[in-house]
Amino acid sequence: MCGIVGYTGVNDALPFLLGGLEKLEYRGYDSAGVYIHTDDGHDMLVKEKGRVKDLEKKVANCKMQGHSGIAHTRWATHGQPSIENAHPHISADGRYYLVHNGVIENYKQLKADYLSDVVFKSQTDTEVAVQLVGKFADAGMDTLSAFRKMINLLNDDSSYAFLLIDAKTPSLLYTAKCKSPLLVGVSRTANVVTSDAMAVLNLTKDFIELRDGEIAVISKESVELYDVAGQRSTRQPFHLDIDPAAVDKGTYPFFMLKEIDEQAIVARNLIEHYFVNGLPQIDEKILSAIKQADRLYIVAAGTSYHAALIGRRFFEKWAGIPTEAHIASEFAYDHPLISKKPFFVFISQSGETADSIQVLDFIKKEHYPSLTLANVMNSTLTREADFALPILAGPEIAVASTKAYMAQILTQVILAAALAGGHDQLQAELSRLAIDLQTVIDGQDKIKELADTYLVHADRAFYIGRAADADVTLEAALKLKEISYTLVEGFAAGELKHGTISLIEQNTPVIALISQSKTAGLTRSNLEETMARGAKAMTIVTKNLASSDDDIILPALNGEMEMFGPILEAVPIQLLAYYTSLGRKLDVDHPRNLAKSVTVQ
Ligand code: AGP
After folding, report:
1. Which of 15, 284, 340, 419 is deepest in the core (most CB within 10 A)?
2. What's the confidence (pLDDT) of residue 594?
């Protein structure tokens, strides 16, 4: 969603800020803006609707040389995408410039209570924040006090990451956060602020992470931290061990393809990290906390929820723990009866999904134990849960999640095995699976052909499957929907006759996922029924259940290995979505209206 970059240092701020915004593009946005206090004393504010490159074109005509500034990509929540609503916003007297991620839930009330005499230039909730700072400063407060007073007026439901510049002291950046991520990057030549480390890795990998309610005042030489009570506090920066090349597309046309291709490597990395002497190793404290539970509740959103559906089966079958998977945004406001000794597992790529954080806040109040499995460690969900485990997918940039989904499933498999004890063949099985994943990835030319023939020109499609394959149909449908804008449904094949089959017309693509021996025949019959009504049928089948006329044949998974069917199926469903989007000449990595990390509810 929205992205923040700020710079104060010895070099020219503009290239750094624009470069940072480019790195934040993957998060999803619809307008962008930048403010620089120039060396010759001018306040330069440029905003544009659309992409960062549109902002860059506009900026090219401006003289914006200066050593400090702030920049933002906005994903509209209050007010449509427009130049007026883009950040930074300015106080009425033109003294303060502010960017904001999050939502100020009580902005209407604040506007009525404090700002009835102010003429607003935008429809945003954010403008209220900067107008309040201006108002309090006008009344005689120093900037830090005015900033703090504004923050203290925000209600508990609000979330924010703020970055403010006072044009009277432009080399200082004021920043604060609550429920929205924010990092201060430190270096010899400059200090910077960002909502996402990716944006500033070319300058530094050393970060101070702001805690909720803290304020930082940053100059090029120093970072002053103030805790919630306004007391000075200190914290050592942490070093983010990340290779900037990992956030580069290299020779790939899109990040999504690169990330799909990396999945066998992700599997190997997980094996290397989690296995010692051939056995899965998970912190004993985590295992013992989970073993005390009478039920596991896995809570997640979107693709991560789909990974939970797959993981659930392993916790039940291997570890013998009754397990439920829940959609975070639903659980937050409408949860089922919770068992006597629940244990909560949160699954997230970003670790910053507002819906999941809302549930974590709730279960912490109830003193229920929790574990987060996330790709971004040091994120809110990993920090706030009792325990955290990394899924080690490496930076995932494309909005459509692929390798993180794979890593989330595999991490659950490893955790379930560790809980169960035994499973001394798992390392070998996962190593074999990594080879199989590579085989499927290498066969992608065929998958591209099928996408071109079946999906690129279709306006709707259906995925069907039974048992574990039914779970995968949900992710298959989501992937295809989000990047190709096709209307797709994924559901249990047995449900066709209970309604959906009426949608089948001549040439409607119906794709069957078949990796479960018990239900393979039934799914095939259901597919036949759609063909009898004109459907253009495609099959994705594991070799042991395949016949020569199947379309995508995955490596065989015999006996117990069958449980890994959803893992192999992940690759063709991702590639079908990728090549459909590509065939339609869409922006695969940046689907419309979507954000990588959904930090508002
Ligand atoms: C899927 O491709 C999406 N990117 C989306 O569904 C995502 O999985 C969801 O928003 C949850 O995000 P998280 O894993 O960062 O919590």
Report:
1. 419
2. 83
